[in-house]
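Hi support team,

I submitted a single chain yesterday and got back a structure, but I'm not sure I'm reading the token output correctly. Could someone confirm the output below corresponds to the sequence I sent? I've pasted both exactly as they appear in my results page.

Thanks,
R.
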Amino acid sequence: MKLKYLLSVFIGASSYGILSTIVVLAYGHGYQLGEVVGTQLLTGCIFAWMLALYTKLKERRKQREEQGKPGSSINTTVDSSSKLTWKKRLLLMLVGTPTAITGLVYYHSLQYIPASLAIILLFQFTWITVLIQAISKRQRPNGVMLFTLVLLFGGTLLAAGLTGQTGGRFSAIGITFGLLAAVSYSMFVLFSGKAMTSINRLIVVLG
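Hi R., thanks for writing in. Yes, this is the structure output for that exact sequence:
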């Protein structure tokens, strides 16, 4: 496995951990769930548009530079299979729906349980994804995968302190919403891996 993929997973996990702390601080300053989620989605939308615009302009600049080279012959025809139709746009929007659901239930869980426990519950999407795939494909996970899941369960119990005396103080509602966030995020992982992976989703709204 390439190092950049490992770093991407690490950065993503760290971002969720930092985000949990920010949300808890926002609740402490009197902000409500709708305000927190709405602000995040609006901010993310703005940054996504900026990044998509930058990507589009960069590609057009590269095309102009290639066309300006002597003897260059660029095929400007567009493959119909990769053309972004409105049906494909709608599919990509539906793929992003579990992300919004994850934010809602995850931030709701932070109103009842500590951020350290919430992030642990969220990352249970790893074994939930394996379970969904095993059921859908009717294929039992191999020994390495099962051993990894056992380690994950054990690490979760130790990290969350569920084996100690403090485990009873955790809110059942908060734990439920934390696990629901893991389920919705696992659906995002499964759906996003099947929905037009050849299309650059950063330029969906501009393509």
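A quick pointer for reading it: DSSP finds seven helices and no strands in the chain. Let us know if anything else looks off.

Best,
Support desk
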